[in-house]
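Hi Y.,

Following your request, here is the sequence exactly as I used it, all 245 residues.
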Amino acid sequence: RRQQLNNVVATISPQVDRLNIVLNEYDAVPEELEKYPNVIPLIPDEDLKDTGKFLPNTQEAKYVLLIDDDISYPTDYVSKTVERFESLNFPNCVGGYHASFYLKPQLGQILRSPSLLFTRHKRVADFRDGKFCFYYGLKMATVVDQLGTGTAIMHGKDMPPFEYMRTSQKYVDVRFGRWCFEHGMIPVSLPRANKWIDVLGTDESIYSNFTLTNPAHVSREILTYAFKVKHRGLPVNEISNLENQ
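Below is the corresponding structure, written out as tokens. Let me know if you'd prefer a different format.
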């Protein structure tokens, strides 16, 4: 995915002060990255998979945006994301574009397929509202259960430490959702136009090779916060109105 990495770096590096790149399973820094003065490469000693994005120390940063090498970001991604995040005027929150909003099987579904009642706790990731996928448009900032870490923004002080994340290889979004819930951070899916962010093709997908198998231990971790996030499903502007009444 070296070419994909270069495409993402070329788009994102002009938009940020510092771009930390965790070069997982690389033996050396690719020479094409040397032309970017604000790129800080890091080659870990072991295969960290998706937990690697939490390895750099970003606690002193005002804003941290987490990105992946398999997503196509627009040239105004950072400025628009910061603007939308700041405009929330909502304390103790993290923002992002890819989100999960978990659903409970409806009575009609259970009657048609009683096994749903018993499998939801094992396959909770199967029951999600698809409209919160990052490449779909969203009109209003909305509280969700969990954010995808490839399109997330937060204050540097709110980043979970690597030690908290390191055992969540292949399901960092879930562990991040748990971190937010445990620390009173409200996950908010930010508004955007349809296809403003898009997906790049990959040879290997954690989603298809791991997430779709719905391991039981991951489902148990999801259920530590799913359905429990305060104001879940509400647009942020409605929450402000409620709390001001």
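Residues 206 and 218 are 14 Å apart (CA to CA).

Thanks again,
Q.
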